[in-house]
Amino acid sequence: MALQGSSREQQIWNKLFETYHNAYGVAALMGNIDAESGLNPKNLQNTFEKSLGYTDNSYTEAVDNGTYSNFVHDKAGYGLCQWTWWSRKQAMLEWHRARGKSIGDLETQLEFLIHELSTNYKSVHSAIMSATSVKS
């Protein structure tokens, strides 16, 4: 299903709200995502751009086309949530490839995030669903 909304912010909000049905939890999660990546699914951790020699877009393209093969182990944060740990990056890469999507695809990253929270971070998933303020 295509993302709904005319801006990236609206698309992220709508996808997360469709899943969690809790404005407080979604706002808190979006605040975290904004702090991590500026809501940019192609965001390469700024401190790695120079050392790796890539921009957000060129890194994404190189991972997608296979010319950069160290994505999983380079320790650079990437994407909406700045996935860094190798096992999480590997799972994210496999998730995208299984769907034939770019590693920087917004909808696929949101789907992966929701999957990851609901399977590996159940307490966070539950907290998003039951939040009564953006602080709790």
Descriptive labels:
136 residues
Report Rg.
Answer: 15 Å
Question: Total strand count, please?
Answer: 0
Tally of separate helices: 7
Mean pLDDT rating: 96
- Strand percent estimate: under 5%
| Distance N to C terminus | 30 Å
Unreliable stretches (pLDDT < 50, length at least 5) are none
Helical/strand content category: mainly alpha
Helix fraction bin:
55-70%
Biggest sheet features? none
Secondary-structure element sequence? HHHHHHH
Broad shape = globular
The oligomeric state of the chains shown is: single chain
What does this molecule look like?
The structure is a single chain. The protein has 136 residues and is mainly alpha-helical. It has seven helices and no strands. It has helices at residues 8-20, 23-37, 46-52, 56-65, 86-98, 106-120, 122-130. The longest helix is centred in the first third of the chain and has 15 residues, at 23-37. It is globular and about 45 Å long.
